[in-house]
Amino acid sequence: MNITEIFETMDYGPAPESPTPALAWIKERQPFGLFVNGQWVKPASGQYLDSINPSTGKPLTQVAAANSEDVNAAVTAARTAFETWGKTPGHVRARYMYAIARHIQKHSRLLAVLESLDNGKPIRETRDIDIPLVARHFYYHAGWAQLMASELPGYEPVGVVGQIIPWNFPLLMLAWKIAPALAMGNTVVLKPARYTPLTALKFAEIVQEIGLPPGVVNILTGEASQVGEALVRHPDVNKIAFTGSTDVGRSLRRATAGSGKKLSLELGGKSPFIVFDDADLDSVVEGVVDAIWFNQGQVCCAGSRLLVQEDVAERLIAKLRARMEKLRIGDPLDKAVDIGAIVSSAQLKEIQRLVEQGVDEGAEMWQPSWACPTEGYFFPPTLFTNVSPATTIAQVEIFGPVLVSMTFRTPAEAVALANNTRYGLAASVWSENINLSLDVAPKLKAGTVWVNCTNLFDASSGFGGYRESGFGREGGKEGLYEYVRPACETAGPASTPSSKFPIAKGAVHPSNGSEPAIGTSLDEDERTVSEFEPSNGSRIALPAIDRTPKMFINGKQVRSDSGYSQDVYDPAGRVIGQVGEGNRKDIRNAVEAAHAASGWASSTTHNRAQILYYIAENLSVREGEFARRIVQQTGRSQADAITEVQAAISRLFSYAAWADKFEGVVHRPPLRGVVLAMEEPIGVIGMACPDEYPLLDFVSLVAPAIAMGNTVVVIPSQQSPLSATDCYQVLETSDLPDGVVNIVTGDRDMLSQVLADHDDVEAMWYFGSAEGCKRVELASASNMKRTWVNYGHPRNWLDPIQGEGEEFLRESTQVKNIWVPYGD
Ligand code: NAD
C-alpha cells in the first residue's frame, strides 16, 4: 500500500509490540513456583496449571497449583514477618514501597506485555493505564506509610491479610490490595485469579529484588477451591480483602461470619451511563467507548447501561453505531487495537449466552459488520436497543463488550432508572449543565460518579461500592481504614460468651470498678409518691399512675403487634416496669417508617445539628429523672447515673458539632479537575444496643447515625430498656421528624435477626454476644448490608476514645467520589 492509498483509506497499519522478551522471561522460569517467605517453592501437591493466552487459546506456561498445605506455610510466614513488619517504622516501610514503585517503572514494559499476553487486554491499555496506575498506587501509599504515625494515631495494623483478586486488572488489583496493606504495617498472602497469575509472579520477583523482608508478601497461585477457600477459613488470617463477583463475595461474608476477621468486598456492578439532551454527543460517544469497550467490557464499573434522554437517543445511537463500525479488534499486542480478547473460553460462552438471552427477551441487537478473529476468544462490541428495564440483560452483569440502552424523559426518571439495580458501584453523568450534573450525582446510589468522563481511577480517590457492589474502599485515606483497627479494640471474637447482663445484679461497674449501689431502686418511692385528700379530710396514699412504655415508630408511641409485654427487673430482681415484646411486624413497620423518613438525608447539616443540640437541651432538663431511671435499672449510685446522663448530653453535643463538620474532602488526582469525596449516609441502619449503660449506649449509637443523615431502627438494651423508652418525650419535643428514630423493645437477638434479614435495611450494628454477632453477619449476606459488631467484647462507653468519634462517623457514612473534570 502506498502513501496515497493509506491517505485515502486512513487505515492503521499493524503496530505490533514484540512478545519476545516476555516469552523469554517466561521460558527461563517455567514451571512457576509459589512465592512463600521470600523464596520460590514447589507446590505441596506437585501439581501445575496451564495459563492460557486468550488471543490464541494456546497455553503460555504452567503455574503451581497451591493447596491448603501451601496456604498454611504462607500464613505462617506472614505471621512471623508481621511480628517485625508491624513494628517497623513508617519511614522504613515507605522506603521499601518507594523502591517497589521504582522497580515497577523499571520493568514497566515487561509487565505491560505479560499482562496483555496473559489477560488478552490491548497493550495500549496495559502500557498507558494499568501499569502507570500500579506504580502510582505504590508511590501514593509509600506516603501513607510515612505519615501513618501522625495521621492515624490510635490505629494499629490488622495483622495477616488474605487477599483474593480477579482477572480483569490482574496487577492493578494486586496493587490496590498490597499497597495499602503494607503501608499500614500488615503482611499479606495474595491469591491471583486462576486465569491471570503472571504479573503477580513478576511482582514477587520485584519484591525479592528490592529486598523486602521475607514473608511480608506471599503469592499463591492455584484454584479458588484449593487456595481461596483455605485462605478465607484460615484461623490465623485477620482480614480478607476480596475483589470479584457478588456471588463469591456473599459466600465469603458467610464463611467469615462471627470469626472476627475484617472483611472488605469490592464486587460487581451494572453501572448507568446517563446522557442528558444537552450533552456534547461526540464526547459522549468517546465516553461510551471507554465505558464499555475498555478492557472488552470486563470492568466492574463498566458503563454497561446507557440511559439516554429520549429526544437525543436516535442521534446518539446512530453516532455510536458509526463509531462501533470503526473499532479495531484483534491481537492485543498490536498498539493500534481497541479491543483485545476475552479472558477465557468460559467467559466468552457466558457472554454469548447472555446476548442470546437478550435477543430471546425481545431486545434489538446490533453489531458492526466486520468479523472477529477466528483464533482465540473474541467477541464483537454489541449494542442492544429497545431494552426493557426488567430484562436479564438490563439487570445482570454481563462482563463483556455488551451495552444495553434505554431512554428516559426527565432527570427524575433518569435517577430512578439508574438506581433500578441491586448494584451501586459507579455511574457517569453527561450534561453541559453543571447544575444538573451536580444535582443528579448525589442522588445516584453509587460509590463513584463521573461527570462528563468515565472509568477514571487514581490512588488518591477511594473506589468501592454501595449496596450489593460491596463495602470498603480502595484508595484515598478512606481506604486505609480497611487495613487498621483501633488500638483500643480487641481483635477476634470473645472466647467466653459475654454475660447477658454485664453490669446489673452486683456486677462490677466497667468504667471505674466500683461496686454498684444495689438496693437503691426507686420503685417504692415511685409507686407511692403522693397522697390523695378527699373532701372528707382523710388522707390516702396514692399509687403512681401506671406508665406503659410502648414502641416508638414513625414518631408515634404504638403498642407492640404481639400484644405481649416483657418484665423489666432491677438488679434485686424486682419488676420495675414492662415493655412491649416487639416482633417481626413491629420491625417491618419501623423499617417502613425509617424509609419514609429518608428526606432526613437531604436536610441541611445545620438543621441536623440544631436538632441534636435540642435533644441534648431537652435531655438536660430531665437530668434527674433520667439519672433516677438509671439507678433504678442498674443499681448504680446516683452520682454514677448522673455521670452517665451528662456523658449522654455531651455526646449529643459532639455529634451536633460533627453534623456539619464530617463532610469529606477534595482530592486532586493527576487530571485537570477535582474529585469530591463526599460522606453520604448509608440509609436505614438497624442497631442493637448493649446493656452496659442504658442511656449512654443508646445515645452513643443513635446520635452519630442521625447526625450523618441516616434513619434508624433501634433495639434498646434488653436488660434496661426504660432509659430509651423514656427518651420518646425528649425526641417528640425536639423537632425530630417522624420516622428518623424508631425504637422497638424486646429480645435483642430475635429482633436483630429480623433486622439483619431485612432487605430494606442497609446496615446493621450489633452490640451483644459473640454468637449474636455471627448470626447478624451471616444474615447480612442476603443484601450485602454493612455490619458493625463487637464480637462479644464489651467497650467502655464512658471513655470518649471508645464511645465516640471518628469510628462512629465512619460507620455511619459511605464515601462517594464525584469526579468533576474542568476546562474545555
Ligand atoms: P470471581 O468472584 O469468580 O473470582 C474472584 C477471585 O476469587 C478469583 O481469584 C477466584 O479464584 C477467587 N474465588 C472464587 N471463588 C472463591 C471462593 N469460594 N473462595 C475464595 N476465593 C474464591 O470473579 P472474577 O470472575 O475473577 O472477576 C469478575 C468479577 O469481579 C466481576 O463480578 C467484577 O465486577 C468483579 N470486580 C470488581 C471490582 C471492584 O473493584 N468492585 C474490580 C474488578 C472486578
Helix content: 40-55%
Strand order of the largest sheet: 13-14-15-12-11-16-17-33-27-26
Strand content: 15-25%
Q: State the low-pLDDT regions, or none.
A: 498-528
Distance between the termini: 38 Å
- Measured on Cα atoms, how large is the radius of gyration? 29 Å
Largest sheet: 10 strands, mixed
Number of strands: 33
Q: Briefly note the structural class of the backbone.
A: alpha/beta
What does this structure look like?
The structure is a single chain. The chain is α/β, with parallel strands linked by helices and 824 residues long. Helix content is 41%, strand content 18%. The protein contains 28 helices and 33 strands. A 10-stranded mixed β-sheet has the order 13-14-15-12-11-16-17-33-27-26, sandwiched between helices. Strand 9 (239-243), helix 10 (246-256) and strand 10 form a beta-alpha-beta unit. Helix 3 (68-85) packs across helix 9, helix 6 (123-151) runs parallel beside helix 7 and helix 20 runs antiparallel to helix 22. The longest helix is centred in the first third of the chain and has 29 residues, at 123-151. The protein is globular. 56% of the residues are buried. Mean pLDDT is 94; it is low at 498-528. Bound molecules: nicotinamide-adenine-dinucleotide (NAD). Nicotinamide-adenine-dinucleotide is lined by residues 164-168, 191, 193-194, 224, 228-229, 232, 243-245, 248, 251, 266-269, 300, 397, 399, 425, 465.
